[in-house]
């Protein structure tokens, strides 16, 4: 473009700006420094907003000494006196003010707030537009300034670069968001699939457990029928023998009431019948307990959800009950010669120990390995924390013990208060036993970990105090118990 043309365009633009500035000055009230609102003209020819001039005259109303005549007030511009009733609306100025408000080049922000001059320059140090008066002030005199048009072009390029950068970031953010939303949808789909699988597997397991339950109940029913049938046959046979004996008794009683000669006639026959009469009891092999074992598939795995690391307390152990901690590779407690036999917490009547943990609520499960020899005597379960540790007492619930103990051979019986407890019969001694305590339910249950079979359950309304795991070995050469990482045996 020709420099002359560019200069003419710039000059024309400047004239437009200057014209707009003058129009703005004409449309601005000298009192409120804002565009006129309902402008009125005084007798001297100056214009003000009606509200502004009325407020100015009301403020001057109290200054009586300055008032020259009643109802007249000084003009804020020239101080000439004017009558209030002489105010005339200036409709032309109203239109000019409205045009100034709507003109984009006449916004107040385009004028310097301090000097009311157009903001034609840009201070690079302060990064703000200034007017030509500001440029000559001390504040900006040493600063580098540019015409607004040049500053706009430079900053417009920078803004374009920033906007392009932000557009790229937004695009990338959109892609990341879409990817995350896709990942979320996939994850929710996987969770839905897993939820359906859990429901399906539990449904299948419930069906399997129901079938296994029916199978065990059916086996138990068959066992009941077989044994009941044999016992009923035995009862019927004995009933038949009893009936024959009662009939013979009646015949003998009738013979004994006859006369002497009648009674003595043919005595050989009734006497021979008496000699031939015998009571034969059929031998029915009756097991102590039903052969059908209560075994719930997966029960041990469920119980292991409550598994805890139970460790015997050395301070409670019988003086000659040795505890070896395999993880630390050391004996727990002091040698037997150094044990205090009269300590409050120590068992001194038999080789026993309790766990370090005390339970007064919740569900707890622990397992004990049994490496026993022959008919070794032992007991395993829980006891109250205040049981007698100085005297030999029967290990039964009345004395605060809920245990399963060895009787002889393969008979493992619960410690009960009845004189003849029903033994828990096992085909083989267990090598791994689990103990489950449900404190709130008042139950202590025992399981064979190797095959998952249920051995015995104590059930009562509530426990009257805190409980501790209980371990007991009967005598030397009984073998070993393994509780968590601790091995326990009796010193010879």
Keywords:
eight-stranded antiparallel beta sheet; alpha+beta; 8 helices; elongated; Herpes Virus-1; 21% strand; 492 residues; six-stranded antiparallel beta sheet; 22 strands; Jelly Rolls
- Order the strands across the largest sheet as they lie in space: 10-9-22-21-12-17-18-19
Low-confidence stretches are 1-14
Total beta strands: 22
Instruction: Report the average pLDDT across residues.
Output: 80
By CATH's scheme, which homologous superfamily of the largest domain applies? SPRY domain
CATH fold category name of the largest domain: Jelly Rolls
Order of helices and strands: HEEHEEEHEEHEHHHHEEEEEEEEEEEEEE
Largest sheet: 8 strands, antiparallel
How much beta, percentage-wise?
A: 15-25%
**What level of helicity do the residues show?**
25-40%
Please give the radius of gyration in angstroms. 56 Å
- Could you tell me how far the N terminus lies from the C terminus, measured between alpha carbons in angstroms? 117 Å
Shape: elongated
CATH architecture of the largest domain: Sandwich
CATH class placement of the largest domain: Mainly Beta
Number of domains: 3
The number of helical segments is 8
Category from helices, strands and their pairing? alpha+beta
């Amino acid at each position: 473009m020709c420099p002359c043309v560019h200069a003419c365009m710039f000059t024309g633009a400047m004239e437009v700006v200057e014209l707009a500035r003058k129009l703005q000055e004409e449309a601005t009230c000298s009192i409120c420094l804002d565009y006129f609102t309902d402008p009125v003209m005084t007798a001297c020819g100056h214009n003000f907003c009606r509200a502004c001039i009325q407020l100015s005259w009301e403020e001057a109303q109290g200054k009586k000494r300055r008032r020259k005549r009643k109802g007249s007030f000084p003009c804020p511009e020239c101080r000439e006196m004017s009558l209030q009733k002489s105010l005339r609306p200036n409709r032309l100025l109203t239109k000019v003010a409205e045009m100034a408000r709507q003109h984009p080049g006449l916004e107040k922000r385009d004028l310097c707030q301090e000097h009311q001059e157009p903001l034609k320059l840009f201070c690079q140090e302060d990064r703000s537009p200034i007017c030509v008066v500001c440029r000559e002030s001390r504040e900006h005199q040493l600063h580098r300034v540019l015409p607004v048009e040049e500053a706009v072009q430079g900053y417009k390029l920078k803004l374009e670069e920033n906007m392009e950068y932000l557009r790229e970031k937004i695009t990338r953010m959109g892609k990341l968001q879409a990817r995350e939303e896709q990942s979320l949808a996939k994850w929710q789909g996987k969770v839905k699939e897993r939820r359906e699988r859990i429901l399906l597997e539990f449904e299948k397991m419930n069906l399997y457990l129901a079938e296994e339950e029916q199978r065990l109940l059916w086996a138990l029913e068959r066992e009941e029928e077989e044994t009941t049938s044999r016992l009923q046959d035995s009862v019927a046979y004995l009933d038949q023998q009893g009936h024959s004996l009662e009939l013979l008794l009646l015949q003998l009683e009738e013979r004994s009431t006859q006369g002497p000669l009648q009674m003595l006639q043919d005595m050989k026959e009734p006497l021979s019948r008496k000699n031939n009469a015998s009571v034969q009891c059929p031998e029915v092999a009756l097991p102590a307990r039903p052969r059908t074992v209560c075994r719930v598939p997966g029960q041990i795995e469920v119980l292991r959800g409550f598994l805890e690391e139970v460790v015997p307390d050395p301070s409670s152990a019988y003086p000659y009950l040795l505890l070896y901690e395999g993880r630390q590779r050391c004996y727990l407690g002091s040698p037997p010669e150094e044990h205090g036999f009269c300590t409050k917490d120590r068992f001194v009547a038999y080789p026993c120990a309790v766990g370090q943990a005390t339970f007064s609520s919740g569900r707890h499960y622990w397992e004990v390995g049994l490496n026993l020899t022959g008919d070794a005597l032992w007991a395993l379960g829980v006891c109250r924390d205040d049981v007698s540790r100085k005297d030999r007492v029967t290990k039964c619930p009345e004395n605060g013990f809920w245990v399963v103990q060895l009787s002889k051979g393969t008979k493992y019986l619960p410690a009960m208060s009845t004189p003849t407890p029903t033994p828990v019969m096992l085909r083989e001694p267990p090598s791994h036993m689990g103990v489950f305590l449900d404190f709130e339910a008042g139950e202590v249950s025992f399981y064979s970990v190797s095959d998952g079979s249920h051995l015995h359950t104590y059930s009562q309304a509530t426990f009257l105090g805190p409980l501790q795991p209980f371990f007991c070995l009967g005598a030397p050469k009984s073998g070993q118990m393994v509780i968590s990482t601790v091995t326990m045996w009796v010193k010879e």
